[in-house]
Structure formats: structure tokens, C-alpha cells
Write a structure and sequence with these properties.
With about 300 residues, this protein is mainly alpha-helical. Helices cover about 75% and strands about 0% of the residues. The chain has a domain at about 90-270 and about 295-300: MetI-like (MetI-like fold).
């Protein structure tokens, strides 16, 4: 296992370098600069600002300077949040996005897997069609629309939950639901498909012939053998949820990475864009590694390489 982890870490390094390289050049190719929206300044001041951040140098040299800085563990200063380094911003906001993402993962698993199993068990029934309809709606409706509808119903109409901010456990419920509901619909449909395949297997008929109860069959045999496709999608999905939905955090005024990323893109804050993108790439590498490890734990026949 240790050899596998070391190998994955080494393989993740070129992935991160590629992500950093592509992001760097794409940012600089897009029209506009980080100081184009500032008030009109004398040319001397603009020249001093660009010299401070190495923006006056050729693009390949800027890239080499940034990669050297990155290898030293320095993500650089933010162009727009003066006096703050990108590492400090990520350190302050990542726990919020991480908490919201984990709660959204619980929503995905808590709604998606049971709904998919119920739908498959009562195939072609009214309950099955209702679950499929709700799953399709969850997949089709954007998260920001679902968030706005949730605020209108649960906050303004029923006055049950706070509409925004991040001040306690009750403030997590609506954004976590809005963030995870769409993915829960996808997991429900995936679970239904895999459970239907397992229910048609010979060993399930044998288990029923032996007199095993339906709960034992569903949870001990069906769920255990249906979980592998779900584990596969939950790796990158968890990484995406943990980094936080930029739009959801903006709608609910949550002080996570999403709000800073949106302002960074708007203001061409190159170091902050790079920092958030690299955090997301690192989480993807970690999530895929964990998925492979979970596969080996669930099924000892799987060889981890």
C-alpha cells in the first residue's frame, strides 16, 4: 500500500505541473489584465506595479519565475487583496468550503443511494417513476436555481431556516442541499441501474431460495455488489464538492473559496486563480487515489498497482 501511495504521488506531480502550465498561459492569453479596471494612473506608477509583480517581463520568463516560486511553496501575493498572500486566503477559506462540501457529500449519499435502491426494488411502480422524476429534476435544475427556490420556500415562506451567511449548523442545511441535490439525482439513477443488474443475478435467486429475508439480501448482498460504480464517481465528485460550488457560496454569502475565486476571475487576480485551481487539482489526485484504495478494501481480489 505504501508503495502504491508513493507511486501515485509521483504520478500526480506531472499532472499538477500540466494543470499549472495550462492555467497560467490560458489566463495570460485571455484579453485584459489585473490592473486594467483600476482608475487611470500615471504611466510611471503602472510601470512600477508591473515591475513589482514581474508583469513587465516576457511571458515565458514570467512562467519560469512563477514555477520557481511555486516549487518553493509560495503561491504569491494577491493582486486585489493587498497585504494578503494567496496561501493565507486559501488557509482561511478552505475549511469553510471543505465543511460545506462534506455536508453536500452526505446529502448525495443519504438521498441518492437509498432512493436508487428503493426505485430498483419496486421497479416500474409508481414509487419508481416518482424517484426517477425527482432524480431527473435534480439533475436538470441548476444548483443556483434550486438554492433560490429553497431560500424562498424554507426561509421566506415557512421561516424554518436562515437564508444566508455562515454562523451555525442551521446555516449549512440549505446550501448543502442545493449543492448536493443534483448529484444525488445522478447517484440515484446510477444506483438503480447497478442494483437492477445485481437483483437479476443467480446468487440473489439462490439467497431467496435459501429463505434469507429481503433486508439481508438488499443490504448484505445487493448493496455490497452494487457499490463499485458509485465509489468510482464519488472520488472526483467529492473533490468537486469539497472545493465548494462557486455560485452556491456566492448566493448564500458563504465565506469560502468560491467567493474569492469569482472575484479573482473578474479582476484577473492571476495568483489567486492559480492557487484555487491547484487546490482543486490536488484534491482530484487525492480523491482518485483514495477511490483505488477503497476498491482494494471492498474487494480483496482487486490488485492495487
Amino acid at each position: 500500500m505504501l508503495r502504491f501511495i508513493i507511486r501515485r504521488v509521483l504520478l500526480g506531480i506531472p499532472v499538477l505541473v500540466t494543470v499549472a502550465t495550462l492555467t497560467f498561459f490560458i489566463m495570460h492569453v485571455v484579453p485584459g489584465g489585473p490592473f486594467d479596471t483600476e482608475k487611470i494612473l500615471p504611466p510611471e506608477i503602472i510601470a512600477n506595479i508591473e515591475a513589482k509583480y514581474h508583469l513587465d517581463k516576457p511571458l515565458p520568463l514570467q512562467y519560469l519565475l512563477y514555477m520557481k516560486q511555486l516549487l518553493q511553496g509560495d503561491l504569491g501575493p494577491s493582486y486585489k487583496y493587498l497585504g494578503r498572500d494567496v496561501a493565507d486566503i486559501i488557509r482561511d477559506t478552505f475549511p469553510v468550503s471543505f465543511t460545506l462540501g462534506l455536508c453536500a457529500v452526505l446529502v448525495v449519499l443519504g438521498l441518492g443511494i437509498p432512493a436508487g435502491m428503493i426505485s430498483a426494488y419496486w421497479k416500474n411502480s409508481l414509487l419508481d417513476r416518482s424517484v426517477l422524476l425527482l432524480a431527473a429534476m435534480g439533475i436538470s435544475v441548476p444548483s443556483f436555481v434550486l438554492g433560490a427556490i429553497s431560500v424562498w420556500i424554507f426561509s421566506h415562506h415557512w421561516h424554518l431556516l436562515p437564508p444566508a451567511l455562515w454562523e451555525g449548523p442551521r446555516h449549512i442545511i440549505l446550501p448543502a442541499f442545493a449543492l448536493g441535490a443534483g448529484f444525488a439525482g445522478y447517484v440515484a439513477r446510477l444506483t438503480r441501474t447497478t442494483v437492477l443488474d445485481v437483483l437479476a443475478a443467480d446468487y440473489i435467486r439462490t439467497a431467496r431460495a435459501k429463505g434469507l429475508t429481503e433486508p439481508v439480501i438488499m443490504f448484505k448482498h445487493v448493496l455490497k455488489n452494487s457499490i463499485y460504480p458509485i465509489v468510482s464517481v464519488m472520488g472526483p465528485l467529492t473533490a468537486g464538492l469539497v472545493t465548494g460550488s462557486f455560485v452556491i457560496e456566492y448566493i448564500f454569502s458563504i465565506p469560502g473559496m468560491g467567493r474569492f475565486f469569482i472575484t479573482a476571475v473578474t479582476n484577473r487576480d492571476y495568483p489567486l486563480i492559480m492557487g484555487v485551481t491547484l487546490v482543486y487539482a490536488v484534491l482530484i489526485v487525492i480523491a482518485n487515489t483514495v477511490v483505488d484504495m477503497v476498491y482494494g478494501w471492498l474487494d480483496p481480489r482487486v490488485t492495487i498497482k
